[in-house]
């Protein structure tokens, strides 16, 4: 049973309707609904009576009391651990990072240059970008350039998070080896009318905007969402007659070694770069967050 689902359950019980609770949690209403249904399936009973304006069931009320007490105990225990670390001279807990972009470069920079304790959060495709911040599960997120993602930028600012430019990441283009575009060097004009697969409904608007700006809106490109739940699912993903434009590190990991796929690293002889942002939540009780942000920005400034 996932702790974040219990937090969402408590929030929904407090607000009384899915729309308000989803806004508070910075997730979509369908996502919240799916999480609550998953929780109910795990428990074996309904928490809300959908026929009575989502009132708590008797079992839901009983679980809410226990959930609120359990979450309060967890939060208190975490705070006690932080105080213990301070007393032992390990003043600050590890900085938590969610890394969606430039993984190899960021991992290398932290491994070779970071003197502060840190750890990575689990990467889940399709998860709302700010979900880890809402759940207080991360301190820093390396992601796409917020200036190209207005709705995400607004959410970041509403939540009081800080953000800045980070660097840029090279992208490559994968396709089936039988695709007519596979055999020759890619040019912008050869891409006219191409079908582009986007692997996340959450990121669909960003990637469409980015590619239209980078390649030109006159190419009559078509975009199709194909949400993928986990990175491992990419190993058998069927591109059909579509192209996939994605960070080179991901293309190399999941498509470059496949005999049924071809990969291009340039268009018109030039690399396509995706600009990036870094988002973080400053905390007075952990100044190392700011130190790690500065280190990453310094390491990535020449990219």
TrEMBL record:
InterPro entries: LysR_HTH_N, WH-like_DNA-bd_sf, WH_DNA-bd_sf
Any GO CC annotation of this UniProt entry: protein-DNA complex
Domain HTH lysR-type: 1-57
PROSITE patterns: HTH_LYSR (PS50931)
UniProt entry keywords in alphabetical sequence: DNA-binding, Transcription, Transcription regulation
Top-level taxon of the source organism: Bacteria
GO molecular function, one term: DNA-binding transcription factor activity
Family that this chain belongs to: Belongs to the LysR transcriptional regulatory family.
Xref: PANTHER family: HCA OPERON TRANSCRIPTIONAL ACTIVATOR HCAR, TRANSCRIPTIONAL DUAL REGULATOR HCAR-RELATED
Name used for this protein in its record: HTH lysR-type domain-containing protein
């Amino acid at each position: 049973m996932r702790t974040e689902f219990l937090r969402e359950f408590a929030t929904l019980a407090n607000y009384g309707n899915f729309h308000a609770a989803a806004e508070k949690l910075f997730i979509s209403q369908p996502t919240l609904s799916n999480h609550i249904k998953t929780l109910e399936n795990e428990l074996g009973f309904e928490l809300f009576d959908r026929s009575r304006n989502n009132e708590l069931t008797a079992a839901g009320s009983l679980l809410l009391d226990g959930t609120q007490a359990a979450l309060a105990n967890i939060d208190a225990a975490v705070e006690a651990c932080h105080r213990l670390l301070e007393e032992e001279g390990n003043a600050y807990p590890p900085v938590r990072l969610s890394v969606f972009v430039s993984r190899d470069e960021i991992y290398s920079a932290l491994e070779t240059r970071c003197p502060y304790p840190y750890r990575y959060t689990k990467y889940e495709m399709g998860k709302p970008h700010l979900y880890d911040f809402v759940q207080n599960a991360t301190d820093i997120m390396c992601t796409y350039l917020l200036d190209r993602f207005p709705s995400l930028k607004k959410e970041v600012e509403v939540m009081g998070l800080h953000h800045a430019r980070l660097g840029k990441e090279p992208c490559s283009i994968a396709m089936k080896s039988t695709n007519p575009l596979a055999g020759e060097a890619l040019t912008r004009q050869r891409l006219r009318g191409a079908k582009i697969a986007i692997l996340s409904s959450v990121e669909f608007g960003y990637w469409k905007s980015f590619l239209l700006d980078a390649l030109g809106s006159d190419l009559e490109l078509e975009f199709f969402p194909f949400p993928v739940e986990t990175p491992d699912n990419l190993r058998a993903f069927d591109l059909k007659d579509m192209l996939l434009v994605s960070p080179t590190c991901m293309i190399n990991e999941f498509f470059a070694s496949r005999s049924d796929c071809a990969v291009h690293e340039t268009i018109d002889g030039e690399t396509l770069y995706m600009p990036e942002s870094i988002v973080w939540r400053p905390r007075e009780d952990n100044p190392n967050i700011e130190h790690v942000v500065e280190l990453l920005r310094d390491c990535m400034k020449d990219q």
